[in-house]
Amino acid sequence: MSTGLELKTCDIAALVRSGKRSAVDVTQAVLADIEARDSTLNCVTRLLHERALQAAAEVDRKVAAGEDPGALAGVPFGIKDLFDVQGQITTAGSVVLRNDPPSDEDAVLVARLLEAGAIPVALTNMDEFAYGFATDNAHNGVTRNPHAPDRLAGGSSGGSAAGVAASMFSLGLGSDTNGSIRVPASLCGVWGLRATQGRLSVEGSYPFVASLDTVGPFADSASGLQACFEALTKETMVPVDTTNLRIARLGGWFADNMSAPMQAAVDGLAEFLGAGTVVELPEVARARAAAFIISASEGAALHLDRLKERAADYDPAVRDRLLAGALLPATLIFKAHRLRNWFRAEMHKAFTDVDVLIAPAVVGESPRFDEPLIEVGGEMVSARANLGLYTQPLTLAGFPVLTVPLVVPGLPLGAQLVARPGREDILLALGRRLEESGIALARRV
User: Fold this and answer.
1) pLDDT at position 314
2) Residue 99: how many other CB atoms lie within 10 Å
3) Lower Cβ count inside 10 Å, N or C end of the chain?
4) Contact 105, 198 (CB under 8 A)
5) Residue 3 has what pLDDT?
6) What residue spans define the domains of the chain?
7) Which is catalytic among the residues 180, 186, 295, 297?
8) β-strands 141-142, 136-137: how paired?
9) Is 335 among the residues known to form the active site?
10) Are 170 and 5 in contact (CB under 8 A)?
């Protein structure tokens, strides 16, 4: 039986809505496919058999009754295991929470996808408490990149990104505090959207850094990403003419350290979009440092009481960074927040004469999981800590960022497209143009 995932999001929904495909049949095939293949990739921590089949049966009932089953009818989606799912324990990738009571209700974003007819099929692997860029979890193992199983999927939302790339489900929910959607989307070759901070509800998602946390979707196509975003916001995008957009490249920090393949990929994207202008943001290194400090201090504050009692239960790599964050002086944290406000204002200035900025998402191809290093400044450094080299600085401003899976030889590479706050419509329209032109396409196996 076919899973239907040789088709893209909008095609699956169209077939189910028309009654030509049964949502139950699609869901049964998807669940069987995940059971058969996920032992190799480790994208999924829990399958939602009963919940998925109940949701699918309800979609088929609505179709048979002539009711509207929703724009995403029958489309399977994965859920990063920091979103509440009714009846499931939200573990945030940690054994520390495994004895918590099950959730009474779904997170807002999960509920909205269900309202749109999408089918929740699995909870997905992540870095513990979303603190990392690798999806290398001491409790649940490493999620492997579907395009090269000896390499990292990226993180912390790696299970959702890799599941979409592996054609296990069409859509995935993730969170992005410092790059946790953008990094795995790039390394796995799928579409990912970090929405404007505050645009999508974080209600029902386990926090990491409350002042920076953002959530968003992964998708198998630009059109699927737009349909998903419309379901999450309950808004319909107004068409945007992309032909006269003012597009520029980010230089300086964002032009250094790229691998040769990434440099060629970004050059090709800029050329296609006519992005001849280069914009340089000030104090990017300090902005990244501020993101580190804010993340470490707020994360530590959230976990400190529990760490005092159960430090040994934490992933050692996460525990050590949280403990270090607890030692940061208040004056340094204050300076980091002050820099954040200043940097946000500088980002707004950068868009005075520009509609979209282009930047690489990562320095290059995914590193091997048994040698998790990347080259920065001529030195080999930890991938887990540094894959966010280009994503972390942009975190401070809270602007929306679309990760574009570029068509390149070799392993996947992605670019960031950045717009003003609230202008996801521009990014999604531009993404669809790139997809239709064959410049950017999700790569699935």
Assistant:
1) 97
2) 8
3) N
4) no
5) 52
6) 9-233, 247-436
7) 180
8) antiparallel
9) no
10) yes
Helical packing angle, 284-310 and 330-350, nearest 10°: 140
Annotated active-site residue 295? The verdict is no
Check if CATH label 2.60.120.10 holds for domain 9-233: no
Decide: 28 and 53 in contact? Cβ < 8 Å.
yes
For 139, 180, 213, 324, 339, the CA distances from 95, given in Å and listed in that order, are 7, 21, 22, 21, 35
Rounded Cα gap, residues 402 and 95, in angstroms? 32
Q: Which of 8, 22, 80, 157 is catalytic?
A: 80
> What is the CATH code for 247-436?
3.90.1300.10
Contact in structure between 419 and 427 (CB atoms under 8 Å): yes
Q: Which of 94, 156, 167, 175 is catalytic?
A: 156
- Say how many CA atoms lie within 13 Å of 252 toward its Cβ: 10
308: left (phi over 0), alpha (psi -120 to 50) or beta: alpha
Please give the structure tokens belonging to residue 333. Answer: 């944290």
Domains 9-233 and 247-436 share a fold: yes
Are the beta carbons of 129 and 307 closer than 8 angstroms? no
Angle at the Cα of 314 (from 393 to 391), degrees rounded to 5? Answer: 10
**400 has a pLDDT exceeding 80:** yes
376 backbone dihedrals φ, ψ, rounded to 5° = -135, 125
Number of Cβ atoms within 10 Å of the Cβ of 316: 11
pLDDT tens across 66-125, in order? 999 999 999 999 999 999 999 999 999 999 999 999 999 999 999 999 999 999 999 999
Check if the beta carbon of residue 29 is closer than 8 Å to that of residue 1: yes
pTM flag (> 0.70): yes
